[in-house]
Specification:
The complex is a heterodimer.
Chain A: H1 35-43, E1 48-54, E2 57-62, H2 67-76, E3 84-91, E4 100-108, E5 113-121, E6 128-130, H3 139-150, E7 153-155, H4 187-195, H5 219-226
Parallel strand pairs in A: 2-5, 6-7
Antiparallel strand pairs in A: 1-2, 3-4, 4-5
Chain B: E1 11-13, E2 24-25, H1 27-36, E3 41-45, H2 48-57, E4 80-84, H3 92-101, E5 107-111, H4 112-117, E6 138-140, H5 147-162, H6 187-193
Parallel strand pairs in B: 3-4, 4-5, 5-6
Antiparallel strand pairs in B: 1-2
Classes of the chains: A alpha/beta, B alpha/beta.
Chain lengths: 233, 208
Amino acid sequence: MTGRFEIVTAGSAASDAPAPATPKKVSHLGAPPNPTAAALAEHFPFALDRVSVIWGETVVFVKANAVYEVMQWLRDDPGQQYDYLSDVTAVEYRDFEQPLEVVWHLRSIPFRRFLRVKVQLPKRGPLEVASVWPLWKSADWLERECYDMFGIRFLGHPDLRRILMWEQYREGFPLRKDFPLRGRFSRAEQLRQALAQNPETRYSMEELTVADAFEDLPEEMRKRLSAGERTGE
Amino acid sequence: MGLIAPPDHRTVSYIPETQEGWVATRLDFLVNWSRANSLWPMPFGTACCAIEFMATAASRFDLARFGMERMSYSPRQADVLICAGRVPFKLAPIIRRIWQQMPQPKWAISMGACASTGGMFDNYAVVQGIDTIIPVDVYVPGCPPRPEGLIHGIRMLQEKVMNERIADGRIRDEMNPDPSSQLYIPPAAINELGEPFGNSVHQNRSAP
């Protein structure tokens, strides 16, 4: 694992990588696709749904059950080396028949390429997709945010909890189209639930800044905390 | 030059020639005067209002002129909580806890439209005014208020402090939630959480 992470310095890109340049006069549709798309079509003919190029950025639609293999190949293949996962998010369209899309933004630093991978999840089925956390650790919080806002479950994520809303939040997934802007509960009920969230009981020692001051705490409190008790319980 | 200080009606007697070093005044006035001119703020900056708050504290507007140069990052040593910015529901218990950890006497300034009313964020995530969580003494309007606006609010608070009377105990009354409700936090928990803060490790909330 450790060998893969090499420090990227200026000029360390692959010899055949295009020189960095600001693209000019990019057409809306029909710009040349990222060469990765053709390689993907060759390696995963059954997993690749379609490829589109929008404003010069290549979007590949992948079948939901093949996401992990495709991602692993994109990361590990010496001709691709997508070593940086910059975003995981989701899109829901206003048209109810349109499936929900999960989007990954990948960047290959050695080849100076950008690739957008999408998976379509029909709303009638379970909103589940494989987690890419074992491939890129940056997926940890990104997938938690995506779960928090859209309710998509990332299978294999080590700690899939809400990240923006508090953990006992019960009103649903705020960025879904069927979620009312002001939430589902009354303001009084929202405030009551928010005040009762008791954050100290929900976060581990590592997450609380109290961990930094652990050595300075009174001995009795240290004993209780190291025995696993959480403050405020 | 003709500049004569107006007679201060609050000072009962002060004749330097005959009664050197001797002043008589109301205790209320003396206590309030010292409190009003040494308000240590607890900055609770969550958004762009905090930028204006920082500008107010910096050299151009210079909050130190009002005895507020010392930002108290420990609620234990703070007198006035200045909430600068929107408060999401996730922060609601935190601002409430900070308020409970502040010792009496304490005041609160709600700075800006979001802290006062939720402002433009009439949505699922933002508290519609911090006065639904803690009692507020002064609301400063603006989005964000200019430093002059905040200073005006602080001057209003000082005026309010100057008009307080020790004999009137009601202004120090704190309403605590019903112990059987989920909202109640036992005093031991409030005190415990304050322990790691700064140089006030052994300082606890003053008795109610």
